[in-house]
């Protein structure tokens, strides 16, 4: 982690959190634009008043060099950024705080932590950026916690180097604790970049991305981090699990794919060889407006099936554009972007725009092309740039916390044939739940990534919540449940790129084939025989269910 | 399987095998062009004289409707097309023949076979096309066979329908036993195709492709069948393992990726939703000549790193082109092909040719572009077309069997930084082994698929072998071992797209991380608790090693 302390409850660093002007503007926006009833304003509970139990176990001598039981340090490794977690943190409830925070500087120290924890039945919670939004970060609570003698957060922040760069193969060996900006700052020396920019980019890191099958900014082709992993090393309680540096292979079920998505439940990802590349030289982008999400979806479907491989191909419905502050836009917006390190991208964008026009889209500002030969930069006020800025500022609703807003997301992926029916059912289910819980609220829709056979759809809801944090968490849970139950009615996935964690686990268990659940538990039994890795997340040890 | 009986030993159907003229021409080519000593000519052993043990077990009543113990039927399900297998089959040795051949017409019948086999400890060998070249097709022999009461080949040839087509999402539900031509004949009605053409296309089928992580004709992007699988159903002894129809997801380690590459050792792949698409409308291709494989490799590296996504991007060294009958070509050949269902491909090929020229390549015939607006077809005598025809006729060396040639392949994938050193070591190791075993012989090199970080390299060797089949198999084994040991010296994979089977298993065991081997065995223990699925292939049941 950076030396600047992270906020205990919000999206970013201490001192960045609450700006009075921003808060006032947000309050006015909620009340006047969205029509929420007058919002109470709450202050975050200061560290001195938070509930943090005393450590249940002491730091063992053999780990003393890199462990801490400091109250503030433990508070910051208690939660990820899931909505219930940030609400609890804001209101000062750090009940599940780890007893110990380990910050190893070598893989040997990681191994020492896992050996000690396995031996003493201490639950281990690996953390890189701590920005997970599915409840997969931090120690277990309640009944699951009770099965362990103690908890230790394993913060990989000191494993933060780019160790080796193979310029010819365009790959780099990067440590698991390296955060997004630190990765690219180090790769910059070689004129290379890891082109994977999840919305959490500034605060999250490689190990967490791989563990959660993070989705990057690429809308097509390289959507998940999986596509950029050449090889990986995961330290498991049973020993190191290291795959080979290979461009590809066909030797049995791909071992990399067992590590991608393992969510800290099998081991700790300490390093990976990743595919990297220079910054793009050529870019083309456009904002296209549609009168209806189904028309926009039809255009997107044709673009992706034509294998044009846009780097950006997002759909924001008209509710969403107004929330991004683009309230002058009364249409459904499709952002198209192409990029290349090698060749002009104008023909690809022009073809995509032809398709959009055939499906009823309009592009009043026309396409913009940048790169050698064009001689001009992106205009700073284009809708594409406005969208990008709003996107980068996004997070997990930190500014809504003081205003007692209940907000959240439901995501999935669905084939094109069933998208219209599913979409209608989803909007109805979430709207009904918002009405039942909060008497009002809104839900917006976007496509974050698209595939030849269907989009990844992302629903965001927001409503005036109960000022009481526990009741507000319960509201969140019921609204989210309405969405996830609808997802499962259509036999879809509860997560496209935000992992299973603890929050999606009930639906994940319904989603996967029963023999696969049994197989994963058997794998956990082999790699983590004492069952200490990230308890409660993704997969239980054999025999627990 | 087709109603026309397949050859017991060669690549194709009965009656297609030995043409006197072709045999004479091949003999002359080997002796005069390749300088082999005079080749003896052997005839295949007729069915009546083959060694096929009587069945060790009887067909149980409950499976009688779809099972056979016919001698010829059993002979044809004894082997795949690995070199030692075709040599044994040619010379009449069918010792490991299955006791029973089951040809189920429903998934219920598949389940019945697995239940009966698990109960009676009968080894089950699933087969679709039976063209596997890594010794993964057919019943176990020797010590492994001795651990079972009998053997049954599970031929999926009657599960050969396209069951459902989703034209909007461009996906189709296809049964596992459907062979390549039957898939596309059925999809033709919808104007769609499964664009996956392994060299075995005419004789192999969907279940086998998925089970072996088959490599198709696409040189980049969609290299392995894995990329085209939307969902899959695998019947395991423990029950059906069916994944969801999803464009993508991030929910835990991807279950599809456990099925891809499972090689019949976990269950039987009975159906899958596959991504399909229309035939390409636009094509561009070119043949480029280089004076040296490293120069050609440099050009290919830049093309793939530029993300031009050529559909074809093969390198054949000068030894290889002469063997394809293109003996007027005294250079290393790169075949480039682009295709699109939607947009012209000329700009992409032109850019690729610019790169080739910068790296010393020459394209004397220039690029060829086809599609709406060009108004002409591919010329029939272009080098690209000549290459394509030679490729389609290729197989597992059937025409060399009567002439007692020892031939085989070693394949791997390697990052660009290590390719030159590895390539030199590989050529030296195989050449030394050829000299030691046969006093002469040659080895040729191609790239079958290419990635941003390196090529899939494929080495083919051929030498005058011993007329005695057992001694010839031993020669093959030693030469192949020299290649595979070199692969492992460089910590690479023993297979890029031809599976592990039994022939690569020794090296696969060295390749994978130890905890992954343990994890796979645990998975097998869950999905195939009696340990009856494809014994000896890929992964052993828990506790056997």
From TrEMBL, chains A, B:
GO biological process: lipid biosynthetic process
Alphabetical UniProt keywords: FAD, Flavoprotein
Residue ranges of domain FAD-binding PCMH-type in the record: 94-279
Pfam families linked: FAD-oxidase_C (PF02913), FAD_binding_4 (PF01565)
GO molecular function, one term: alkylglycerone-phosphate synthase activity
Cited SUPFAM superfamilies: FAD-binding/transporter-associated domain-like (SSF56176), FAD-linked oxidases, C-terminal domain (SSF55103)
PROSITE patterns: FAD_PCMH (PS51387)
Similarity comment: family membership: Belongs to the FAD-binding oxidoreductase/transferase type 4 family.
Protein name: Alkyldihydroxyacetonephosphate synthase
Organism: Natrinema salaciae
